[in-house]
Amino acid sequence: MPFEDGRLGVLLLSFASVGGQEHQRTMYVPVLREHPALRLAAVADEASAPQEQHALNRREAEALGLPYSTDLDAALADPRVDVVSVCCPFERRAEVIRRVAAAGKPMLVDKPLALTRTDCDAIERTVRAAGVVCMPAYHFRFHPAVRSARAAVMGGSIGLPWGVQGDFIIAGGKSAWPLGELANFGLYPIDAIRSILGLEVQSVYATRGSFFYGGDNPEADDLSVLALNLEHGVLATISVGRAPTTGHPNGYGGDRRLRIMGSHGTLVVDAARPWIQVAGRDSHADESRRYYGAESLRALVDHFVACVRGSQRPELGPADARAALEVILAARVATAENRVVALPRLADGTSTPANPAC
Q: Pick from 140, 51, 40, 120: which is nearest to 85 by CA?
């Protein structure tokens, strides 16, 4: 039940650091707290979570002036809770989402939604059976530049698309994500290309490695290059990774570009503009770059709220997360075995639709 002022109450489900990334605190809370249709209501986690996780959750709740509960079901039953922001670890995520869905609560889920086909399938079955909105935070597709590109392609501005070249290289950071930057960032350009073109990936060839950061973990790749065959003969190449170069500490410094080539023109998306960077003798460039204009995460939350209220139909859900995951898994096999890997098809011989409802 919404608050008296009409705002929806948000339950923050765990402040877990997934692979060293504190997304609940650094990404979602600032946007959720400032959104005019939302109000933070409480923090909760499963009773079985590690004690150090409960201690962290409690500290974050106190800092926000919110109550903290280790009884997840009771927190979900609280009438002040209308929606849930899920940021628990991957090993607990499918079960947590099942409990949120059983309580009938719409949810925004940290990215990537899941790391395995099994978990993706379980999540999709769960939320579909419950009839709740489950939106993975693949927010790049909601960036205004990407939305404009989608409209231009759909409107025929460049004719029939035949090729895409994309870069999603994040600048800065002291190390690669422990599970690999391909899994961390690859979902963004893959999902954006699917959204813009409305086409599915059919096969993948790739190379990846630890070129900048090294380390003992072979799975902690920092740069990957993917070559994709999409439906209708459309080709795409994507560079994905992290480089120890100048960038803003919020993680968005670097190159986030898409070039879509068509029979009658070319379209270029640069999601890093507009920005300003000042670097001097007494300043660090990593701390001086700022971005302006609408942000993709805020646009995603706008869409999420509209879907919860029933004024829009969800265009992003677990099936989209599964589609991006299939590309990432295929890229790993292609790299390991030095071959083109075909993506699995559905039982009826078709691909997962590019813009399914939740």
A: 40
CATH architecture of 8-110: 3-Layer(aba) Sandwich (3.40)
Query: Which residues neighbour 107 within 8 Å (Cβ) at sequence distance 6 or greater?
Result: 83, 84, 85, 86, 97, 100, 101, 132, 133, 134, 135
The pair of structure tokens assigned to 345 is 């098809």
Euclidean distance between CA atoms 93 and 96, whole angstroms: 5
Does the predicted model carry a pTM greater than 0.70?
yes
pLDDT at 272: 75
CA distance 231 to 117: 22
Whole-angstrom CA distances from 150 to 176, 234, 316 are: 31, 16, 15
Q: What is the pLDDT of residues 49-67, one digit of tens each?
A: 999 999 999 999 999 999 9
Residue 332 phi/psi, 5-degree rounding, is -65, -45
Does the domain made of 140-342 have the CATH classification 3.30.420.40?
no
Nearest in space to 199 (alpha carbons), one of 268, 116, 262:
262
Residue type, 164: V
Question: Could you tell me the CA-to-CA distances from 125 to 132, 134, 237 in Å, in that order?
Answer: 11, 11, 32
Cα separation, 110 vs 154, whole angstroms: 29
Phi/psi region, residue 28 (left: phi>0; alpha: psi -120 to 50; beta: rest), is: alpha
Kindly state the tokens that stand for 280.
Answer: 């001097």
Mean pLDDT rounded to a whole number for the chain = 88
